Amino acid sequence: MAESVTSVRGGSGRRVPRTPRLRRRLASRDRAVVVTMVVIPAVVVLALVWLPAILSVILSFGSWNGIGSVDTIQWVGTQNYRDIVTIYPPFWPAIRHNLIWLGFLFLGPTLLGMLLAVVLDRNLRFGRLYQTAFYMPVVLSLALTGFIWQLMYSRDQGLINQVFHTDVDWYGDPHVNLWAALVATAWRHTGYIMLIYLAGLKGVDPSLREAASVDGAGEVQTFFRIVFPVMRPINMIVVVIVVIESIRAFDLVWVINRGTNGLELIGALVAQNVVGEASRYGFGSALAVIMMVISSVFITLYLRVVFSEEKDR
User: Fold this and answer.
1) Among residues 290, 281, 305, 233, which one has the least CA distance to residue 92?
2) Count of CB atoms within 10 A of residue 120's CB?
3) Which of 73, 146, 251, 286 would be 80's cystine partner, CB 3.0–4.6 Å?
4) Cβ(152)–Cβ(163) below 8 Å
């Protein structure tokens, strides 16, 4: 490795040698590893995320049933978007249901998951067992969750109707099936939020709690005035997760009734227009783009807050 030695004049006029500037070069094998670790994830993201997103945007301006070559696409401009907001009946109920889904996740399982994390952070006896029990539904897919809760909600042989001697069609009645699906979602979502907040609580400096205790603050005051503000990055992550989960909700309602009869959601509408004999790829792509734009707004706000905090440090 070549080194260039330069000199500067000191206070007495003598030339003082300057410390040589060393440049560290990676070995060929290390460079290959670095390039591989960068290129492969970039290619995967481009192929599985950006390319489908770009194609969805392009297809949203056309009319195509998926049969034949792309030369058969009829370009209709913004007609798909105009039809969605004007003459497509399920769209606005789907928007309303997604907003209800979002509000319920915030006020229900998110707060419950945070409460469970605070309780389990106190090193209770059998705490590991409780964590496993609450987190177990998270490893199940929403589709499997739907089947499990179908055993609970069955009108004829369901556990709830048998215990309370009722005759409610929990999944068939459009007045109650949305709330039944939300309860099933909460069963899975609570454990996920609990684990995130539990990890955040483990990272809080214990000296902060000790100082609050010395000042005479109770546990509730310590949490809301000291611990909760410190976990602001965790709170922002939870907000983004809840928003994305509520917008892309699909599996559970698709298992129940394919997102119809009171369970209209944007994700289910996309699948209805893309999958099946009467496929409308352009129309379904326009719905997917709307869902993507809504998600991108919240993600952009999250990234803006994170980068502003990093800049202020």
Assistant:
1) 290
2) 19
3) 286
4) no
Q: Which residues contact 255 (CB under 8 A, 6 or more apart)?
A: 142, 143, 146, 147, 150
Yes or no: say if 221 and 141 are a contact pair by the CB < 8 Å rule: no
Burial class (CB in 10 A: 0-12, 13-18, 19+), 302: middle
CB 180 within 8 A of CB 158: no
Which residues, 6 or more positions from 197, have their beta carbon under 8 angstroms from its beta carbon? Answer: 113, 114, 117, 118, 231, 234, 238
pTM, to two decimals: 0.80
Can you give the length of the chain in residues? 313
Output the CA angle 6-8-10, nearest 5 degrees. Answer: 150
Q: CA distances (Å), 202 to each of 112, 237, 241, in order?
A: 18, 16, 20
Token pair recorded at residue 106? 């915030």
Buried b or exposed e, range 79-114, using 16+ CB within 10 angstroms: bbbeebeeebebbebbbebbeebbebbeebbbebbb
Q: Give pLDDT, residue 61.
A: 92
Residues of the chain with pLDDT under 50: 1-8, 22
Cα-based distances in Å from 123 to 120, 127, 138, 225: 6, 6, 22, 22
pLDDT score for 259:
85
Residue with tokens 């009829």: 74
Render pLDDT for 173-198 as a digit per residue (tens, 0 to 9): 889 989 999 998 898 899 999 999 99
